[in-house]
Amino acid sequence: MKDRQKIIDFFKASGQEAEEIAIRLTDLAESTEKGRPFAVGPFMSPYAVQVASTIAAHMKTVSARAWGGYHEAERVKIAFVNEDFGGTVDFGMKLLRATWDDRYRLIGHRDVLGALMGLGIERDVLGDILMQGSGAQLIVDSCMADWIQQNFVKVAMVPVKVEEIPFDELVLPEKKAKEIRATVASLRLDAVGAAGFGVSRSKMVSAISGDKVQVNWAPAKGTSQTVKPGDIISFRGRGRIEIVELTGKSRKGRTGVRINRYK
User: Fold this and answer.
1) DSSP H helical segments within the chain, as ranges?
2) What sign results for the dihedral spanned by CA atoms 127, 192, 229, 220?
């Protein structure tokens, strides 16, 4: 790929994580360009979709696809596909169902992820974890499914039973959003973020400076970054917000915004 370094340098400006994703995906794309019908990467953040689209735009015979087990999945696998391939791409995923005693309904996403990571596996073999009361559905890499079934036996000292189930039993997550209406002095990231997450402007500035904030899954560029309707702002530990629309100007010249906040 003649533009390989140019692409990597472009994403390098967004931080180390973006650079690492770009390197990993360009390697994958090049393997397809050299003759493989398709090549599939590990589970990645949604930001990888933007990187993959940029890479594919610089290639004549290779396209990029993303799949995480269901539409709107947060963690996805990227596949680069040769234009001559007419078959079905195997993204290499399996669906597991983990259940535990109904008395322990307070077990949350963080507990399940922590227990899985405590087994010593890499994050990139895990897709979305969908919580369901006294259980969870786990989308995992096919190569690790049996190992996880055998070794994932406890969450916070609570015994867990894990079994593989077909994808047609996947229960899609219910989106619960809190609508927030506010006015801001400008559409700067720190101003909109503070209004959406209900924190002070100074706390939002600290979070952005501390690399805890992402815009559309990419690292925030700075406190003065301009955001717009459709953008998704993630704040580590506080969830995410989506800017739905601008609702006009107030008499004092402030901009009205309607925001959905998800936890």
Assistant:
1) 4-12, 16-33, 47-57, 109-117, 142-151, 189-197, 201-209
2) negative
pLDDT tens digits along 87-102? 999 999 999 999 999 8
Percent of the chain whose predicted confidence (pLDDT) is above 70: 100
Q: Do 29 and 21 touch, CB atoms closer than 8 A? A: no
Residue range 178-191: average pLDDT? 95
Sign of CA dihedral 211, 212, 217, 222: negative
Q: Contact at 8 Å (CB) between 239 and 254?
A: no
Tell which wins on pLDDT, 173 or 27.
27
The pTM score is 0.80
Q: How far is CA 170 from CA 71, 110, 129, in A?
A: 12, 20, 11
Q: What is the CA radius of gyration of the chain?
A: 21
H, E, C per residue of 96-165: EEEECCHHHCCCCHHHHHHHHHCCCCCHHHEEEEEECCCEEEEEEEHHHHHHHHHHCCEECCEECEEEEE
Give me 181's structure tokens.
């209406």
For CA atoms 119, 139, 260, 241, the dihedral sign is: positive
Give the pLDDT confidence score for residue 225 in this predicted structure: 95
Within 13 A of 71's CA, how many CA atoms are on the CB side? Answer: 0
Do residues 219 and 20 touch, judged by C-beta distance below 8 A? no
Pairwise CA distance, residues 66 & 55, whole Å: 13
Residue 259 confidence (pLDDT) = 97
Q: What is the rounded distance in angstroms from the CA atom of residue 28 to the CA atom of residue 40?
A: 7
CA dist., res. 27 & res. 32, Å (int):
9
